[in-house]
Amino acid sequence: MTILVIGATGRVGRHVVDQLVQRDADVRVLTRDPTKATFPADVEVVQGDLLDIDALRAAFSGVSTLFLLNAVTGDEFTQAIITLNVAREAGVERVVYLSVFQADLAVNVPHFAVKHGAERMLEAMGFGATILRPTYFIDNEAMVKDVILQHGVYPMPIGGRGLAMVDARDIAEVAAIELVRRHDTPGKLPIETINLVGPDTLTGTDVAAIWSDVLGRPVVYGGDDPSGFEANMATFMPKWTAYEMRLMAERYVSDGMIPEDGDRERLVGILGRPLHGYSETARALAAA
Q: Domain NmrA-like, which positions (predicted)?
């Protein structure tokens, strides 16, 4: 039986596919444009999107286990619910779903609320699922590296409470481990939620200090101004998306993303190694 990976073309999804291939899993990927898919030769690539019911039904044929990562879009909730309905129709009960940290609390942030809705469906409709709740992705810093390198400012308004930023490689490896575990277990396993966090809880000032150390020159934190962040985002993305990013940043400033007791130890136990930290990515981006 096959593991179907939906959301395979982004940073996390590509790592998930690679991790599954390393574990000798049979992997199928659903993508809008197979000509742009660059996966190992033994990965089956099928064309379709999450609103194409016929393509979804075909993609689920012969599948036992699903990895679902929805892009942040205006119709994300519809895509998620339709996909899970088609999975259930196909008899697929084993799911690893990429949600977000504290999805149940940040109810005013659209893509947090959407993911909590999908979590509720997984539980209410009897799926055997692992729900992964990652914090802020360290890999997102690639989007702001030019501002840091050229202007000496860390521009993300992440606040003073702290975010336990997580590396996409750690997210993907935990996802692959859970997919294989559910795939290989004879019976349906109960729902389980795993917070995906990094080794350090960092404030905006902490991150600026890391960059100062990496670059050998001062980098300052740009401050806790979600409105300015929204204005900058709106210059290159749809205004509704920029506004959603502002709402998310407001949550960073007010609440942070603080691990629960035992979160880090649990992840280290699953992975059998230390977690990747922020400084590693900062050094790689600076060198690039």
A: 2-226
Q: Environment class of residue 182 by beta-carbon count within 10 Å: exposed (0-12), middle (13-18) or buried (19+)?
A: buried
Distance, in Å, from the CA atom of 159 to the CA atom of 221, rounded to the nearest integer, reads 10
Residue 192 structure tokens: 């389980």
136, 171 contact by CB (below 8 A): no
Q: pLDDT tens for residues 89-106?
A: 999 999 999 999 999 999
- Global pTM exceeds 0.90: yes
Residue 100 to residue 162: CA distance in whole angstroms? 16
On the 0-12 / 13-18 / 19+ scale of CB atoms within 10 A, 50 is buried
Alpha carbon distance, N-terminus to C-terminus of the chain: 40
Structure tokens at 166: 């997580």
pLDDT of 37 > 90? The answer is no
Q: What is the largest CA-CA distance in the chain?
A: 57
Helix axes 110-124, 76-89, angle to 10 degrees: 20
DSSP-assigned letters across all residues of 109-147: SHHHHHHHHHHHHHHHTT-EEEEEEE-SBGGGGGGTHHH
